[in-house]
Design brief:
575 residues; alpha/beta; Aldehyde Dehydrogenase, Chain A, domain 1; Aldehyde Dehydrogenase, Chain A, domain 2; Rossmann fold; 3 domains; ten-stranded mixed beta sheet; 25 strands; 19% strand
Length: 575
């Protein structure tokens, strides 16, 4: 039985959990359907995605209602999520038509999606895998089965052949290992926690599919840096939305605010005043700014953290909840003081802002602290000193950087989204590389190191490629080693060489000094297991023929150019 997070008296629906037998049957059906689906032309498959997007729009009211009642999203967030889901369908359809004819599907793909974007991420994963000719087994979060079931039915209505998309609902702890450990699964796309990603990889390592692609997006301790040159009203607006919109339940949400000491008191006073104007309550009310968190377990975890902070005298402000919130899983928007991002052992997935004050001249140390935390999903910067912004962008190990704007709401095809380190493996969702990870023989990718992405006037969006770092090159022959080293070096990376049973490479993996493993052929089950069992960040394993594009790390930078007086380049634009 499913209850509305905003009102426990509202029974939204019921769901029957899949059994182990159901999960195995889904894998079998998906495997059987693969040959027929992959034989269709890319244009036919892209057309089905585009028709699905049209059906999403035609059924937007129903999808919005499900997002509000089942996931507790505000109407504003629900509408934005539907738009993002449609963007994924259309963008991946367009990207697929640009793939070389030699590109081939890899087989049945398992897509494991979260409850915080139960339509957009669910759709994006599935669309990327389907359009490249793969069949899909979709395992949505158990908190949001209804909207995923409705979305799957719209794929079918758009013309998706029978058994091409299998929907498996239920408790991930029970049926997850059955799905992730199947040798018939050719690849996995996952959004969730770092620890769950490790468990999935361990299951994959024991399945006999050592080189199966694994795309993981695993959250982050996202920071924003505000210096004394920032426009305070603009900074407060962007802090407020980044930290508290969606009740702080976005992977990209602001968790740690670094504010320069000289402006901290006035900025925090302004922030508290603005936060007290937020409307907290029923997400069905169009006036609501902050809705509930997803369930009682989440509420208890967040409240326990806030209580511990308050007991230590760290509270800056806590916005009281209206009486009408008592029957839901609401958490008051809260701000607390800490000394450093390194004090936080994990992400608090809710409307809690941690504030650190820093002295002028210490911005380089602030960036070092953020990098040492190990996460690398989003970073906000509020500053009108261009050289400072450029230096932070160059030294921060972050996937998505936002300058003089909020740090949520990445737009598909404009701000490709995804992190590095503890925040994920890449490639970025909504970016040029994503669907290639679901293919073989897609050919070499020739791209610029910095690409200006489309976007509205007043906003500059760049997609930047840089070396991933240290690449372990595994080949069983000297010729193979030379080839791998050349590929890695061409992307600007450093290399460590050896074979799958090389002790030196294993030591480097254990010491967390390897950023990716490039293989020519196969990787030994023992090394695959060692990579999977490793705590912390996930290390992608790349086939030299199919995934050399991932020797680059991707960074997206989005800047509000109006904050510094506008985009001066427009003055020289040719009419």
């Amino acid at each position: 039985e499913l209850l509305n997070p905003a009102n426990k008296s509202d029974k939204v629906g019921r769901v029957s959990d899949a059994s182990t037998a159901d999960a195995l049957a889904a894998i079998s059906a998906s495997t059987s359907a693969f040959e027929k689906w992959s034989a269709l032309s890319m244009d036919e498959r892209a057309g089905i995605l585009e028709r699905t997007g049209e059906l999403y729009e035609e059924n937007a009211a129903e999808l919005m209602a499900l997002a509000v009642r089942e996931a507790g999203k505000t109407r504003f967030d629900a509408v934005a999520e539907i738009r993002e889901a449609v963007d994924f369908l259309r963008y991946y359809a367009a990207e697929a038509r640009n793939l070389p004819k030699e590109a081939r599907a890899i087989g049945p793909v398992l897509c494991i999606s979260p409850w915080n974007f139960p339509l957009a991420i669910f759709t994006g994963q599935i669309a990327g895998a389907l359009v490249t000719g793969n069949t899909v087994i979709a395992k949505p979060a158990e908190q949001t089965p209804l909207i995923s079931a409705r979305a799957a039915s719209l794929f079918q209505q758009a013309g998706l052949p029978e058994n091409t998309l299998q929907l498996v609902q239920g408790d991930g702890a029970k049926i997850g290992p059955v799905l992730t450990g199947s040798p018939q699964i050719a690849g996995i796309a996952f959004t969730g926690s770092t620890e769950t990603a490790r468990l999935i990889e361990m299951s994959m390592a024991g399945s006999g599919r050592a080189e199966a692609p694994f795309i993981a997006e695993t959250g982050g301790l996202n920071a924003m840096i505000v210096d004394s040159t920032a426009l305070p009203e603009q900074a407060v607006r962007d802090i407020l939305s980044s930290a508290f919109q969606s009740a702080g339940q976005r992977c990209s949400a602001l968790r740690v605010l670094y504010v320069q000491k000289e402006i901290a008191a006035s900025l925090l006073e302004m922030l508290e005043g603005a936060a007290r104007e937020l409307t907290i309550g029923d997400p069905w009310n169009p006036a609501t700014d902050v809705g509930p968190v997803i369930d009682e377990d989440a509420r208890r975890t967040i409240i326990a953290h806030c209580d511990a902070m308050k007991a230590n005298g760290r509270l800056i402000f806590e916005i009281p909840l209206p009486a009408a919130c008592q029957n839901g899983t609401f958490v008051p928007p809260t701000a607390v003081r800490i000394g450093s991002i390194l004090e936080l052992e994990r992400e608090i997935f809710g409307p809690v802002l941690h504030v650190v004050e820093f002295e002028a001249g210490r911005i380089d140390q602030v960036v070092d602290e953020i990098n040492k935390a190990g996460y690398g999903l989003t970073l906000g910067i509020h500053s009108r000193i261009d050289t400072r912004v450029d230096r932070i962008c160059e030294t921060a190990h972050i996937g998505n950087i936002y300058v003089n704007r909020n740090q949520i709401g990445a737009v598909v095809g404009v701000q490709p989204f995804g992190g590095e380190g503890l925040s994920g493996t890449g490639p970025k969702a909504g970016g040029p590389f994503y669907i290639r990870r679901f293919t073989r023989n897609a050919g070499k990718v020739d791209v610029a190191q910095r690409t200006l992405m489309p976007g509205p006037t007043g906003e500059s969006n760049s997609w930047i490629l840089r070396p991933r770092g240290v690449i372990a090159c595994l080949a069983d022959s000297d010729e193979g080693q030379k080839r791998l080293v050349a590929l890695a070096a061409a992307a600007g990376n450093r290399t460590v060489t050896g074979s799958s049973d090389n002790g030196k490479i294993r030591d480097e993996i254990v010491a967390d000094r390897i950023d990716a493993i490039l293989v020519d052929g196969t990787i030994s089950p023992e090394m695959r297991r060692q990579v999977a069992e490793k705590n912390g960040r996930r290390i992608p394993i790349l086939d030299a023929d199919d995934a050399a594009f991932m020797l680059h790390a991707e960074t997206s930078i989005s800047e509000d150019t109006t904050a510094s007086g506008g985009n001066a380049s427009l003055l020289s634009a040719v009419a």
